[in-house]
Amino acid sequence: MKAARIHRHGDPSVIQIDDVPIPVPGPGEVLVKVAATSFNPTEIAVRRGILGPMDLPYTLGWDVAGTANGEPVFGWLDGGAAADYVVAPRSRLVSPPSSIPLVTAAAIPLAGLTAWQAVIPNVAKGQRVFINGAGGGIGGFAVQLAKYVGAHVIATASPRSHETIRRYGADEIVDYTTGARLDDPVDVMIHLVGTPPPWIPPVGTIISAAAPVAAPPGVPSSHMVTQYDTGQLTSLAQLIDAGELVVDAVTHPLDDIAEVHRRGEAGDIRGKITITAAGDTLRLRG
Ligand SMILES: NC(=O)c1ccc[n+]([C@@H]2O[C@H](COP(=O)([O-])OP(=O)(O)OC[C@H]3O[C@@H](n4cnc5c(N)ncnc54)[C@H](OP(=O)(O)O)[C@@H]3O)[C@@H](O)[C@H]2O)c1
Q1: Is 234 contained in some domain?
Q2: Of 116, 154, 281, 285, which is the most exposed, with the fewest CB atoms less than 10 Å away?
Q3: What positions does the domain Enoyl reductase (ER) occupy (predicted)?
Q4: Which residues is 274 bridged to in the sheet?
Q5: Which tens digit of pLDDT belongs to each residue from 163-191?
Q6: Ligand 1 binding pocket includes 111 (Cβ within 6 Å)
Q7: Domain check: are 144 and 194 in the same one?
Q8: Contacts of 43 (CB under 8 A, 6+ apart)
Q9: 146, 172 Cβ separation under 8 angstroms
Q10: 190 in contact with ligand 1, CB cutoff 6 A
Q11: 270 in contact with ligand 1, CB cutoff 6 A
């Protein structure tokens, strides 16, 4: 089978598509025939070795959607899903939404769960929420979840993301490329950008999933690290099947993964990208 692996840490050129044996599941594990994984910018840090040493060669791919024992499954793994097959603990896999293609479901786990954990415990109906970085993979889910709970959503996005963010329900958009800023107060700020915000509106609470935010005196500020939660992932799938959330993703074949990493490092990606296994690529290409 094909697997996108790194044999050493470094720039995107260290990613290579290798021929490797199909893995064998151990106790409590299943073999997943991968439909797709997705690109998450945190995997750039994995590739570079910034998250610490790891066993090499390492197969990329945290998000997975595919089939196990003939049943559709999806989830978030510790890597390995940028391949035709991956072995996964059965307990980490849940049923994907049935209303969207399995390949698209691979866009959901890490980005959707991060948005869920930023928004659902912290945002209430009628509150004003400022989402900084709405054009990203997490931001798209965060805008929709904040609208789902009944918040007034103000989002930063550059022009390439305006139409999408409006379609997700954002009430106001601040174009961060123009130097425009928000001076009206908000209840909650959710920061989803890898660099600190250049400005902070008058705010009640700050939650960052990305770069640390230097909060004004007296403003509670926290940094969250996404925890895997199969119950929340199932809830996301149910909201999607109920038509409350949409999932948009551009799909690339596994052969493109190094190029996707290059584009990710260059800031040339908006929203989610799914990466299909080689088997599915052949099928997609007819
Ligand atoms: N804490 C955790 O556990 C955790 C988990 C997952 C991810 N993360 C981190 O969360 C961050 C977001 O992840 P992601 O997957 O959503 O990233 P992403 O998809 O790569 O986000 C890219 C988007 O960021 C937007 N952006 C770039 N610079 C911006 C700026 N100065 N102001 C506002 N928006 C800007 C762009 O929006 P436009 O298209 O509008 O230009 C772009 O589309 C990353 O730093 C990631 O490492 C943390």
Answers
A1: no
A2: 285
A3: 10-275
A4: 38, 251
A5: 999 999 999 999 999 999 999 999 999 99
A6: yes
A7: yes
A8: 60, 61, 62, 261
A9: no
A10: no
A11: yes
User: Which residues make beta-bridge pairs with 15?
Assistant: 6
Q: Find all residues with CB under 8 Å of 185, minimum gap 6, and list them.
A: 128, 201, 202, 203, 204
Within this chain, do residues 172 and 197 fall inside the same structural domain, yes or no? yes
Looking at the 3D structure of the chain, how many domains does it have?
A: 2
232: left (phi over 0), alpha (psi -120 to 50) or beta: alpha
What is the longest distance spanned by two Cα atoms in the chain?
Answer: 59
State the amino acid at position 10 in one-letter form. Answer: G
Decide if 241 is inside a domain.
no
**Separation of alpha carbons 273 and 271, rounded Å:** 7
d(CA 1, CA 22): 6
Domain that holds residue 207: 112-223
Contact 257, 112 (CB under 8 A): no
pLDDT digits (tens, 9 = 90+) for 95-143: 999 999 999 999 999 999 999 999 999 999 999 999 999 999 999 999 9
Q: Are residues 87 and 147 in the same domain?
A: no
Question: Cα-flanking dihedrals φ and ψ of residue 94, to 5°?
Answer: -135, 175
Q: Alpha-carbon distance 36 to 191, whole Å?
A: 28
Look up the CATH number of the domain holding residue 176. 3.40.50.720
Reduced to 3 states, what is the DSSP secondary structure of residue 111?
helix
Question: Backbone dihedral region of 79: left (phi > 0), alpha (psi from -120 to 50 degrees) or beta?
Answer: left
Q: At what angle do helices 109-119 and 137-148 cross, to 10 degrees?
A: 40
Tell me the pLDDT tens digit for each residue of 17-35: 999 999 999 999 999 999 9
107-128 as b/e: b if 16+ CB within 10 A: bbbbbbbbbbbbbeebbeeebb
What's residue 278's pLDDT? 85
